[in-house]
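User: Structure please.
Assistant: Input sequence and predicted structure:
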Amino acid sequence: MSTTLPAREADEKVRALDAISNHDFRYRKYHIDEIEMATERFSDELKIGEGGYGPVYRASLDHTPVAIKVLRPDAHQGRKQFLQEVEVLSCIRHPNMVLLLGACPEYGCLVYEYMDHGSLEDRLFRRGGTPPLAWAQRFRIAAEIATALLFLHQTKPEPLVHRDLKPANILLDRNYVSKISDVGLARLVPPSVADNVTQYRLTATAGTFCYIDPEYQQTGKLGVKSDIYSLGVLHVEKAIDAGTFEQMLDITVKDWPVEEALGYAKLALKCTEMRRRDRPDLATVILPELNRLRNLGHAYEARMSAARANGGSGESGAQISGDSTTVGGSWETADS
């Protein structure tokens, strides 16, 4: 059953926002003078990125490295996104969600923890000459993103749909731990319409074109499986390029476990089914498989580390079977 009447939609929106607004927002309010001093009056030399919202600067506040996102005066619906991001990030905590440290509401400035390795998009395209992400890192990141997404979808009292999940909005810290950012487009969905059967009708779609759920784009009906489509596109990007499957695997990674990578790609493609009802469930299908692949990567890295500690390069004899609990079996790689 879809919610179509404007009055009903407005009532649901007010109720949802009231629920989250009752939280005690836990963030520090900065004065604009502090922001200007930290960014050296928004120096281009400290700028580390720019998006639709506005520029992002690296700075230091309270002796802590931070990233400061500044709302452009002409940003479309920027103020609304600013308020949404503050409301969401100030009252939720998860190890795979970017941490909001503070804000300057009067001037639309958001202060986040600094993420040393930038975005997943930057690392996939190896911007700045950075080394390629190993397959074990990619599987771990995939599981971390799914874990955070499930957390958003299970938020009480109202589930949250991110609506703009993409590599540019996945940030990596100094240990390459991934965190979902940019929740300015996130939408609270009433529980009665949050499952994969019923949807919540919106008056306008939002997000980045190639990552938007086609069903949401065509009908305006939003559900938690709208994020699953974006997740699938993101996973495909992390694994493949073009050609036969083995040729499609990112060639900068030399030791892909072909069978496991194929299963990963098939799961990603299932997530991008045109019909929402045909996409797999995040909690019961997607996350268990991604956790299995993450454990497989952990076992591989442990074997490689042990081989290096014993004086070897770790390149030979570091084969792991498809069973994530077994080390030392046979395993076909892209180089085999």
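Residues 19-24, 192-205, 321-330 have pLDDT under 50 and may be disordered.
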